[in-house]
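Before relying on records like the one below, remember that each one covers exactly one chain. Contacts with other chains, cofactors or solvent are not represented anywhere in the record.
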Amino acid sequence: MRAEPTGTTGLPGRLIAVEGLDGSGKSTQIRLLHQWLEGLGLKVFFSEWNSSVLVKDATRRGKKRHLLTPTTFSLIHATDFADRYERQILPMLRAGSIVLCDRYIYTAFARDGVRGCDPGWLRRLYGFARHPDITFYFRLPLQVSLGRILEGRPRLKYFEAGMDLGLSPDIYQSFRLFQGGVMEQYDRMADEFGLTVMDATRTIHRQQEITRRIVAERIDLARYRLRRRR
């Protein structure tokens, strides 16, 4: 059963998020979309996952010393998101901006779900957050995604590879298994939350064309144009 999106009902702003595996090209697409919207003279704000100044140091120390259990890992990222949501995302929506998010609550649902956190608990944990007006899920075959990441990254990180789960003593095999689980979570959420699935095997240019068309069809962009001073 598909969950009813909360949306941004009652707020003048609009919320757009991108999701997908590392290497799917989602960050490239959201940044190109950001540039396009700004070029149209619209009020736009950008936020990315795990970027709260308040929480960043604690997160870094916990990861470096391998102190995070699946539950604490989930809670510390929820704290990061809550801080950004209350201080940045929600105020900008209230101010009538188009807010772009490079990863949103679905990242937590996918990654923490693979780590064994209860799906219902995760959804209640992030229950304060509105669902985006549009969420693009850039879907890429697992092997292609892994190839892109491993090609550009000489060394994998402990939690990034899911080494805390004991999937495999080999960090590269653990990474493959963990990312495969994350992809399965995303695929299930596509219907549950009405994610807009994008074929990430297309060229960057073609993906951006489709992304812009969908945004223009679903959002009245003229409403978000900056007012020029006379």
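The mean pLDDT is 89.
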